[in-house]
């Protein structure tokens, strides 16, 4: 998978991508990442990438020509067909399903805007898709681009170690994660659930699935409304609800 990021701040993207899962994927050549600075493609002495908005108003708008040239150069750097994505609050909301969809492209060109936005003519001429990571305004598209790169990279084959894959599965399954515990066995009168110390892996797996279902029901019931539960899962969730209600009446 290849990512090309069009950005006025290549250091932000390059620095973050050195570390963790994404960093290892790049070292292992499972992912290629290159940044392209629109400022390189300016021709005036001031290397101007922004200008005042037509119609007036505060702030600056990113000029269309340097961005087009940066995107063209990125496209020419590889033969793989590229999907050009603009990160903005106006885009389609990113979720794990969207991540799976994006991960199927051999190559993504990610456009990270700055200032008050980009010239609208760039959207119509060069951008294929617009994606948002949530309903808030940031100072640029670099962090959203890194969020997308991180989440897509994790889904690529052989990127996660064997130990991490099971965790990933629970998200793909549309449920929240089950609770985690490590040593010590008791902390401030709170003990680790007995089943996790039993060594019975079958029982532990069932407990974890039940907790995942229960946590999802408690914290994100909307996720369950869009999901078909197996007979076994429905039974586990019923048990969780009964235990939860029994606990509540005791209080
Ligand atoms: C700036 C601004 C100032 C006054 C009134 C409205 C305004 N909107 C913006 C704005 O949207 N600026 C953007 C900053 C321009 C493109 C890059 N920026 C950005 C991207 N902010 N937030 C994102 C983003 C991208 C993806 N998902 C969530 C947020």
Summarize the structure in words.
The protein is an alpha/beta fold and 251 residues long. The termini are far apart. It has two domains: 2-155, Alpha/beta knot (3-Layer(aba) Sandwich); 186-250, tRNA(m1g37)methyltransferase, domain 2 (Trp Operon Repressor, Chain A), CATH 1.10.1270.20. It is elongated, with a radius of gyration of 23 Å. The chain has helices at 10-16, 20-27, 64-76, 96-103, 120-126, 142-155, 162-172, 201-219, 221-225, 231-250, and strands at 2-6, 32-36, 50-51, 61-62, 83-93, 107-111, 129-132, 186-187, 190-191. It has a five-stranded parallel sheet, sandwiched between helices. Helix 3 runs parallel beside helix 5, helix 4 (96-103) packs across helix 6 (142-155) and helix 8 packs across helix 10. The structure holds ligand 9WO. Ligand 9WO is lined by residues 59, 87-89, 113-114, 116-117, 132-134, 137-138, 140-141, 144.
